[in-house]
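In this supplementary section we document a worked example of the pipeline. Step one takes a protein sequence of length 632 as its only input; no multiple sequence alignment statistics are reported here. Step two produces a three-dimensional model, which step three serialises into structure tokens for compact storage. The input and output of this example are shown verbatim.
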Amino acid sequence: MKGVCTLLIGLLCSSTVLAYQSEQIIVAQINDYEVSSSELLYGYQKNRDDQGKLHIDSLKKYLENYINFKLKVQAAVKQGYDTTAGFKQELAGYLSQIRKPYLDNPEAEEKLISEIHRRKQIEIDASHLLIKVAPNASPSDTLRAYQLVDSLRQTVKSKEEFEALAKRFSQDGSAQNGGKLGWFSAMDMVGPFENAAYHTEENQVSEVVKTQFGYHILYINQVRPSRGSLKSSHIFFSTQGRSRDATQRIAEAIYDSLKNGADWNTMTRRYSNDNRTKMNGGQLPWARIKQLPDEFYDIAYGVKEINGISKPQRTQFGWHIVKLDDERPIGPLSEERSAIEQQLKRSGRNVLNNDQLINKLKTENNFQQNKTQLNAQLSALSEGSLNEIIKRETIFRIGQRQFQLSDFIKTLPSQKIVLNNNIIRSLYLEFERKSIIAYEDSIAPIKYPEYGFLRQEYKEGLLLFEIMQKEVWNKAIEDSVGSKVYYENHLDQYKAEKRLEVTIISSEEVSLVERLMKSEVKAQSIEELAKSIFTNKEQSLLKIVKRTIKASEMNKFDPTELKSGSWAKDSDTPEYYYLNKIIPSGYFSYEEIKGQVLSGYQDFLEQQWIRQLRAQNSIKIYDSALKEIVKN
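The serialised model returned by step three reads:
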């Protein structure tokens, strides 16, 4: 991720809560850009381990590094990196992942946790029909999708009719199977879909529900109490390479042996075709619905007692004999709370729903609207009796912005499409909602300073990555002559003590290594010697690698004379060393440490560039301001 290249921090690593100063103090100025105390402290606090008292020296040092960072970012902006389509697209992707602070809903989270726990007591088998709607779909496409799904819903009278419609119209992968989703419970589906499932009766079709995928209708096939989680093992019989009947006969024979006292682990190791589990008694991890196929889950729960086994039964994968090792029901809320909280956080459901969010933002941002006038305006729009004066009338104000009826009209599918009053009002509510959220987005970086700094951090981190590639990283890689000159000028950094080229041999069969040591190596390598004296099977039992080590590392070995062709045994490991060559002390060659030289050359280029940037730009540091924030 490019953002980690910023000097500030790893972008998502810290959850530090800062005490922002109510009065902004300017601590430095870089050209026309003023660095505030809040901005400086945001990065400084996240970068230091000691969260105690501020120290002026460390704060000054951090500010110098921060100025260097800002100079690079300003250089990237001057060169237009922030205007490219690729940059804008990548930045938008990163910003979309930042949690928006105005969505948090701690007041309602407790109620939601209790509701999720209640739902986890129930499992639902449902089918669905989906008409997809792209996130950036036009109002006309959105309306068309909704009307299609709603019209299909009106025709459903039975499960069979629903499945036929799903096969014909649904745009989900489950369509070919009549929209069947199998069993699920709370937190297995996205929030709106789950809500629709739990608010629809068995053998009934749901209302139309909108998710990020599009518009759905659900048919609830069956509802049952939760089966909780289970721990199981299995012996698996694959049908690959043999007929289904032959596989069944083998499975039944093994089942008879188990019923007559055969050892489960022995039979699993010998006959199971599941190579991942056969050596461990066929054990599978704790699982619940959606974590195992429904058909396997049904077999396991058909076993009536712990350590009991099922008769051989077939799934889409093959035949199974299943042993029920343990089962665990849904625990009380006190036990399940932590897991539910984590699930809610990952899913983003611990945020305000649409109605709650809009009401909150209306209150906070002084939303104003004349509802009587609005009703008249929308009626005139649906009746086609608009004039230019009505179009310029205000439909609502929020914060410092006002919206006119003409702003809403621009979002309608087409002026040529006749829209009835109900559709007009539905589309207006969506326009009002989007406008209120867009306004909040525009002021959120100021309203929530830490959020604003985090957004800035993403942007500047990407800019830093782009400019560093051009000015430092790629330049160093492409300038092979410059890197070699740098190596020659900094040889003292690349001193090497006496080293040894060795071949390291290890094996559980020590006798094989002993045979190697007794054999005459002559001019050939240890690998060639092994090929000449061992069979392929014996060679597979040997591990042979070449390395260059410091001569001082041989001190821990059994006493040996350091000369080419000698053997040594590592007393701490089962490894034997064959000494191929002695390299006298001196300097590492350029090729040996090319990566290290390249890294040093990049640092050298970066420092040159920073000196150049500092000479070309205006920088002011206000020491009195730094002392003031340290004192406070």
